[in-house]
Amino acid sequence: MAQNEENNGHLPKNQKKLNPNVAMVLSILLAGLGQIYNKRYMKGISFIILEIAFILATFDFLWLGLWGITTLGTIPGVDHSIYLLVYGIVSLLLLALAAIFYVFNVIDAKKQAQKINDGWVIPSIKQSLKNLYDKAFPYIMTAPGLVLLIFTVVFPLLFAIALAFTNYDLYNSPPRNLVEWIGFGNFMDLATVPIWQDTFASVFVWTIVWTIVATSFQIVVGLILAVLVNDKRVKFKKTIRTILILPWAVPAFVSILIFAAMFNDEFGAINRDIIIPLIGGNGLPWLTDPFYTKIVLIMIQTWLGYPFVFALFSGVLQSISSEWYEAAEVDGATRWQKFRNITLPHVLFATAPLLIIQYTTNFNNFNIIYLFNEGGPAVQGQNAGGTDILISWVYKLTFETNDYSMAAAISLIIGLMVSIFAIFQFRRTKSFKEEGNI
Q1: Which domain holds residue 85?
Q2: Co-location of 351 and 405 in the same domain
Q3: Going by C-beta distance under 8 Å and a sequence separation of 6 or more, which residues neighbour residue 232?
């Protein structure tokens, strides 16, 4: 009889109609009350226990955290501003999780009241546990990963963002001194204070030039070599490909340190054995003149980066049907026309996401900048080296001058720039669209 009533969408005769709004309001007042109103007693009691346990277990910590993130301490030497900031961020994360649970509790109470009014029969406790296991199993399995993600990715990100709006530096280091909220002060300094303004403009321009030129060179060299080796007239393709990807086999930091020694102004092989015998003098100032250092850095990055691009393009080129080229030859197409209309579009369509990643990777390519010359040489009137990019400048601000808040502000700018560039390019890339022709 109950089954027939459920199928017909009518309530049993002895069951009163529930008010979904009442269930929702009760759940807002206390998690679980709405479920009890819906006669889901076990679920309601479980929600009530969870809420009370959360309040009792975290109340003191949440109070301290919210007070700490608001004030960052009031007594120098006693209150540790950074610890209070950490407690505050953790408190906000816990409150966010609690808010998600509370919203679920309210929505669940209202929906179940509507379902019961529509004739849904409340399952037994055994059936409820089985349904809970079936529905919650994926979430139970992913919960540890979610918690790990929150505290290894989300928490550090929020902490760095928060530091960008403080005055945390060598002279405002707890516990001796308190850190204070200064709003957009760090960003205003980057735009108005001469030394910060000049340094940021110089480093920013070089970072953009470095990213575009170095990455484009390695892509162009990789493409040219891949096209040449893929030519059907070339023999010993396997041997040639093996030789061309050898730079990829050597760890990058080893190659960078070797190049740093080779280009040393005083004893490097480039000056001693090549430049001086050819032009005389003391050789070229590879490590002491920013212009020459930048040229060398671009050349080294091209050497380090082209093998990956070459291997990537080689695989894609072999997937292009030879019939396309034969048809083009019949139509009288030249080699350049075949390359421009067949080879290049196909390669870019298949590899665009990875090529975009090459640009974003070089934008933050700390290793080559720092290992080659530590971002040097020094530049008068700036607090960054002549070849520092944004990420290496952030490193120096953090570990050499202890200007943590300014480093966090610049890191936030870097993150925004990379995110905007990546999102813009991905949205324009055909590889990420469901449909599209080459």
Answers
A1: 2-163
A2: yes
A3: none
